[in-house]
């Protein structure tokens, strides 16, 4: 059963109501476990997303620092993995705002 896939269509309150109305086969006892699991999954996704954001910020700082040390775009692309158009836009914006790495 894929209740977790349709989170925009079914609320946790609805899941709780469904479980509370099931015949008593231990389902009510499992509800805290389901809630804890959902909470852990959300925390884990948030943690992973946070690590991704921090890594990207680090790469952006590296790109800007390399540019300010007169490295060329192809080299910065190789080091950071960013695409040329993105780097050029990022550097142009950083220069306009006078950002220093």
Low-confidence stretches: none
Helix-strand pattern: HHHH
How much of the residues is beta strand, in percent? under 5%
Question: What is the helical fraction, as a range of percent?
Answer: over 70%
How would you classify the helix and strand content by structural class?
Answer: mainly alpha
Count, helices: 4
User: How far is the N terminus from the C terminus?
Assistant: 50 Å
Q: Provide the gyration radius in Å.
A: 24 Å
Strand tally: 0
**Shape, please?**
rod-shaped
Report on the architecture of this protein.
By secondary structure, the protein is mostly helical. The chain is 71% helix and 0% strand. The longest helix is centred in the middle third of the chain and has 42 residues, at 27-68.
Topology readout:
Layout: H1 12-20, H2 27-68, H3 73-80, H4 84-96
Helix pairs in contact: 1-2, 2-3, 2-4
Search tags:
101 residues, 4 helices, single chain, mainly alpha
Entry summary:
By secondary structure, the chain is mainly alpha-helical. Helices cover 71% and strands 0% of the residues.
